Amino acid sequence: MFNLYWADESGFPAGDRGAAYGDGLFETIRMYGNRGVLLSRHLARMGRDAGRLGIPIAPTDLRKACTAAVSRYADRFPNKEGESGWVLKLTLTRGEGGRGYQPGSGMRPNLMVSASPMPAAPATSGVAADVSRVPLTVNPLLAGIKSLNRLEQVMAAREITGELYEMIMSDSAGNLVEGTRTNLLLKGPGGWVTPPAKSLAVAGILRQWVLEKLRAKGEVVEERAVGMADVLGSHCQGLYLLNSVIGVVPVRSFAGQDLPADDGLATIFNPLELLE
Amino acid sequence: MFNLYWADESGFPAGDRGAAYGDGLFETIRMYGNRGVLLSRHLARMGRDAGRLGIPIAPTDLRKACTAAVSRYADRFPNKEGESGWVLKLTLTRGEGGRGYQPGSGMRPNLMVSASPMPAAPATSGVAADVSRVPLTVNPLLAGIKSLNRLEQVMAAREITGELYEMIMSDSAGNLVEGTRTNLLLKGPGGWVTPPAKSLAVAGILRQWVLEKLRAKGEVVEERAVGMADVLGSHCQGLYLLNSVIGVVPVRSFAGQDLPADDGLATIFNPLELLE
Predict the structure, then answer these.
(1) pTM of the full structure
(2) Mean of the pLDDT values across residues B5-33?
(3) Most B-contacting residue of A17, A21, A166 (CB-CB within 10 A), to test interface
(4) Where are the domains of chain B?
(5) Is the pLDDT of residue A216 over 80?
C-alpha cells in the first residue's frame, strides 16, 4: 500500500524521493466524468514499470485511488455535452528515506493524485513540429518508463514557441525518436512505421493501442528507426503524434517543410469508445 | 529571488516541478558549525548550472539562504572537538507552473534547505567497490549538472550491499565513468587519470579541487576515458573515490580484485583547511 496525497491539499513531504531524485513515475489519464480512457492500460503500465524500478505497488490499490479521485474531483469538471473531459494525474514515488541515493528497506511509496482541465485541443487540420536541439538519451534499463526524470523533455519543451506544437527529439545517431510528450507514427508506401519500444524514453499507452488496432485491421506496422529522410522524403504519406490525453495529431509541417496531412488516422481513436 | 522552504517545516508545494519532472538541481555541502567546506565553489556551481537549465538565480541570494540555514540548523550539530560536522542540502527547482513539460514565463524558483548529520565515515584503509549493472547515460546538454534526474544513480545504489561501499557506472562503450555519488581518480605510471568532465553525469566539486591541487603541485593529470584494464592492470597504483562531503576515499578492492591502496592522496584534502 502507499501513502495518499491529494494535490489540492498538500505536496509530498520534504523527504520524498520524488523531488530529491526523480525517484518515481507518473500517469496522466483522460477522464470523462467518472470514467477514464484506456484506464486499465494506464494502471497496468504504472504497476509494471513501478516493478521495474523496485517500487512495490498493487494495481488494485491504484484502482482504489482512482475511484477515490473520481469521487473527489469529477464534479469539478461537469461532463456536459461537448465537454472535453479532464485529466487525472497519478505520481508515484518510492517514498521517504534511505541513505542518499540508496533506498531504505521496506519503504512505503507515496502517491500524489491531482486533477486538471484538458489542455487546448490541437487544430484538426494538423500542427507544426520541428527538430529539437536537445538530444534524447535513453538508458536501456529505464527505456519506456514514464519516470520523473524528465529534464530532457523540459529542456526540449522550452524550444516550443510561436506556432510550434511539438519538438521531436533525436538520438545520438540522428534518428527521430519521439516528441517531448508524444510518440511518432509515420505512414509510408510500405505501411506504418514507428521507432521501436526499446529506443523510447516513454512508451505511450496510445502508441501501443494504435499499433494493435492497425495490426488487427491487417495493416503493416514496422517498428524501426526513423530518420529525417523518412519524414521529409517524397514517399512520406503522413506523420502523426500520439498522446493518450490529446489523441492522434496529424503533423502538417515539419522542420519548415509541408507534409501531406489528413485526419484519417485521427478517426481511428475515439476516446468516448474507450471509457472504463 | 526564490521562494524558500525549510525541510523541517514543509515540503515543496504540490505543483512544484521538482517532484513532477526532476526539473531542478541540488548541492550537498559539508559544514562545521557555521562554516562550509568549499562553500563558494558549491554556490558558484549551482548558480552556473541553474543558468544552463534556464533557472534564474543570483549567487548572492543563495549565499543569504546559506547564512539563514546556518542560523537555523548549526546549533543542532554542535561543533565539538572530533565532531565530523553536518550536511547542508540546497535543492533548487524551476518552481510551480507551466503547461506540462513547458515552463511558464517569469516563473519563480523554489529553494528547499535541509540539514542532516554526516554519513558514516569510510574505513581509512580503503573500501570495496564493484561495477554496476546499471549503465550510465549522459545527455551532452546536461553533462556534469547535479540535477534532480538521478534515477540511474538510485538504481545503481540499490546494488550496494554487504561490504560494498560504492558501485561504479560505465557508459555504453564500457568505460568506467563515475560512482553513484563519487568521481574517480586513478594513479598510474604516467600520473593521475580521471574521466573527462564532458563524460560525467555529475562533475564534482572535490574532483575539480583535487585536479587543480595536483596540477599546482606539478603532477601530471590526464582527463581521458578509463577502462577496466586501467584499474585492474598491474600498472594501476591506486583508485580513489572523490566526494566533497565524504572526502577522498581509497579503494582497496574493485570487482573482487585487490588494489594497491594507501591514504596518500586522502591527506591532500583536509576539509578543516577549506572552511568558508
Answers:
(1) 0.97
(2) 97
(3) A21
(4) 3-117, 127-261
(5) yes
Between the two ends of chain B, the Cα-to-Cα distance in Å is 23
The string of pLDDT tens digits covering residues B141-195 is: 999 999 999 999 999 999 999 999 999 999 999 999 999 999 999 999 999 999 9
**For residue B81, pLDDT beyond 70:** no
Q: What angle do CA B32, A103, B127 make, to 5 degrees?
A: 60
Verify whether the Cβ–Cβ distance A112 to B12 is below 8 Å.
no
Instruction: State how far the Cα of A26 lies from the Cα of A19, in Å rounded to an integer.
Output: 13
Pick from B11, B17, B138: which is nearest to A14 by CB? B11
Provide the edge-to-edge strand list for the sheet that holds B35-36.
B3-6, B110-117, B86-93, B24-32, B35-36
* 3-state class (DSSP) for residue A21: helix
pLDDT tens profile B184-205? 999 999 999 999 999 999 999 9
> What values do phi and psi take at B231, rounded to 5?
-90, -40
Return d(Cα A261, Cα B211) in angstroms, integer: 56
- % of chain B beyond a pLDDT of 70: 98
Q: Do B101 and A150 touch (CB under 8 A)?
A: yes
Decide if B135 and A141 are in contact by the 8 Å CB cutoff: yes
Q: Is the pLDDT of residue B83 over 90?
A: no
Q: Taking CA atoms, what residue in B is nearest to A93? A: B19
Say whether B19 and A155 touch across the interface (CB within 8 A).
Answer: no
Q: What is the average per-residue pLDDT within A19-43?
A: 96
Residue A145 CA neighbour count, 13 Å, CB half: 27
The third-level CATH classification (topology) of the domain covering B127-261 is D-amino Acid Aminotransferase; Chain A, domain 2 (3.20.10)
The distance of B14 to chain A (nearest Cα, Å) reads 4
User: Is the Cβ pair A13, B11 closer than 8 Å?
Assistant: yes
Residue range A49-89, pLDDT digits in tens? 999 999 999 989 999 999 999 999 988 887 666 667 999 99
Selection from A165, A209, A163 nearest residue A185 by Cα: A209
Whole-number pLDDT of residue A217:
94
Residues of B in contact with A9 (CB under 8 A): 14
Note the CATH architecture for domain B3-117: 2-Layer Sandwich (3.30)
Pick from B84, B158, B90, B89: nearest CA to B122: B84
Contact A21 B150 (CB under 8 A): yes
Q: Are B154 and B141 in contact (CB under 8 A)?
A: no
**ipTM for the assembly:** 0.96
